[in-house]
Amino acid sequence: MSHAFTPGKVTAVTGPSGRGKSTLLYILGLMLTPTRGRVLLGGEPVSAAADATRSRVRAARIGFVFQDASLDPSRVVLDSVIEPALYAGWSRKAARARGRVLLEQLGVAARADHRPGEISGGQGQRVAVCRALVTDPVVVLADEPTGNLDRDNAESVLRALSAATEAGTGEGGRARTVVVATHDPFVLDHADEVLAL
Amino acid sequence: MRPTSLVREAVATAWATKVPTTLVCLLVAVMCATTLATVGRTAAAEAQVAQRLDTAGARVLVVSDARNGDLIPEVVVDQARGLSTTERAVGVVVPVDVTNAVIGPGGTRVPAWTIVGDLADVLTLTAGRWPGPGEALVSARAQRELGMDHPVGAVQVASASVVADHNVVGAFTPREPFGDYAAGVVIAAEPGTIADSLHVVVTDSSLAAPAQAAVIGLLDPPSFDAITVQSPVALADLQAEVAADLGTFGRTLLLGVLGAGALLIAIVVLADVLVRRQDLGRRRALGATRTTILTLVLARTLLPALLGAVIGTAAGLWIAGQWAATPPATFTAGTATLAVLAALASTLPPATYAAGRDPVRVLRTP
């Protein structure tokens, strides 16, 4: 396949189980190297780069939202949010300031000093969106982000992802590209584009 | 990732995972304490052997003229004294008995040694003045036995064949290894006196063999049985062998303790890495490089290992102190350093494994 994901839009990747939605997401996220073809990020080939380079790109330019939020259970919410920024080389002070702004925007600022076990699933997923946006990435990848949520919380997370495309300053002020792997029709209804595998 | 952020992450993670952190701390503490309490005791014994080996008594070489062959004149004593391997050297005439000249032959007898060479090599002057040729110094004990109120007067040789008086001009205490002289009188030799034995204190016990060869070369005996030699070489060899045996035993025990501890730490860290594979996979997915993961796991071990080294060293020194065998400071510092390095070395394989794990594999939800 060959596909150009559109900045400023939420693209849903869908298809039956086992068709490769998550695999495509991991390839786009530079966690898997494609056996054939390549991934261009802003026109720059990045998929064949060295592991350390791909890690740095991942930390600074790509945000991830996992199905189960994957927050560190031993750390408070704010510490989880700033994790990618620390890997990208930000100072802790700057990362915390940015993290607090995002938590405020997504309505979970009051939970900044709580541990993941003390917040709801919907709040946890919104925290995960904050973490995905903390380094102001150009791409946000979400793997079944609403899989474990009820309809209200799912809508809240989708609104946050949709807002991320518009609010993104990205590189050179470009809007963000958001790619969501899902087989949830509710998510497909909210997507700007759908890529079926 | 900035170093300060990495250290902070390591501290936070170590604090969050209290069981492996405590186990690593405990294992390193046990490694240090066990080493200091067992190998440290051996090291202390090794140090004591080395210390004994270095005393003047263990470094004295005595060459005696077995046939009165005039082998040890004053010039030979001076030459022996001038050797680079010599700390001190004097010639000694076979001791004779002397009595207080005032009392006469019926008085209490004490031994008198006639010394060829510098008296300062064998004694310390405590009263009076340094004696001239033929004059004598008396020890405190001999002074009492001779019935002298003060270290002045004269002694006479208690012999039917030899008649000689020696003025006593002061008192002395002997220097090691000439402690026997505390029992009597020391007489400064007249010029031309031939000594019966040559006493040489070598500078270092390890130089006993070359010193012995050099001294015998100076005497140039006409035959091997013309002289008798009391040498520290055999003693030095024996003590060196004992020290070597103790050292080998200590090193083997040290390797055993450190090896066992390192193996246990590797198991603890590997178990921790496996339990926390989701955490490490998430970190990799969020942008942590392999080096960051490797360093993070190592730092997570280093922090409790350092704490364990401090606790274990304190405990080990206390235990060793109870046995009056406190190991040398260098050994103590070396043990703590080795324990921490062993902990880090044993962490390296599981840390490498953790860094090399595929984040996708651990992140995929079944």
Oligomer: heterodimer
Radius of gyration of chain A: 16 Å
Helix/strand order of chain B: HHEHEEEEHEEEEHEHHHHH
List unreliable stretches of 5+ residues of chain A: none
Q: Counting H and I runs of at least 4 residues, what is the number of helices of chain B?
A: 10
Q: Write down the overall geometry of chain B.
A: elongated
Summing up helix and strand content along with how strands pair, one would put the structural category of chain A as alpha/beta
* Largest protein-protein interface: A-B, 32 and 28 residues
Question: How would you write the strand order of the largest sheet of chain A?
Answer: 4-5-6-1-7
User: Largest sheet of chain A at a glance?
Assistant: 5 strands, parallel
Gross geometry of chain A: globular
The tally of beta strands of chain B, per DSSP, is 10
Question: How many domains in all of chain B?
Answer: 2
Query: What helical percentage do the residues of chain A reach?
Result: 40-55%
SS field, number of helical segments of chain A: 8
Structural class given helices, strands, pairing of chain B?
A: alpha+beta
In round numbers, the mean pLDDT of chain A is: 86
C-alpha end-to-end distance of chain A = 9 Å
Strand content of chain A: 5-15%
Provide the residue-averaged pLDDT of chain B: 87
List the helices and strands and how they pair.
The complex is a heterodimer of chains A (197) and B (366).
Chain A: E1 10-14, H1 21-28, E2 40-41, E3 44-45, H2 51-61, E4 62-65, H3 77-81, H4 83-87, H5 92-105, H6 121-133, E5 139-143, H7 151-167, E6 177-181, H8 185-190, E7 193-196
Parallel strand pairs in A: 1-6, 1-7, 4-5, 5-6
Antiparallel strand pairs in A: 2-3
Helix pairs in contact in A: 6-7
Chain B: H1 3-16, H2 18-53, E1 60-65, H3 74-81, E2 86-100, E3 110-116, E4 123-128, E5 136-139, H4 140-146, E6 153-157, E7 165-174, E8 185-188, E9 197-202, H5 208-219, E10 227-230, H6 233-275, H7 277-285, H8 290-322, H9 329-356, H10 359-363
Parallel strand pairs in B: 3-8, 5-7
Antiparallel strand pairs in B: 1-9, 1-10, 2-3, 2-6, 2-9, 4-7, 5-8, 6-7
Helix pairs in contact in B: 1-8, 2-6, 2-8, 2-9, 6-9, 8-9
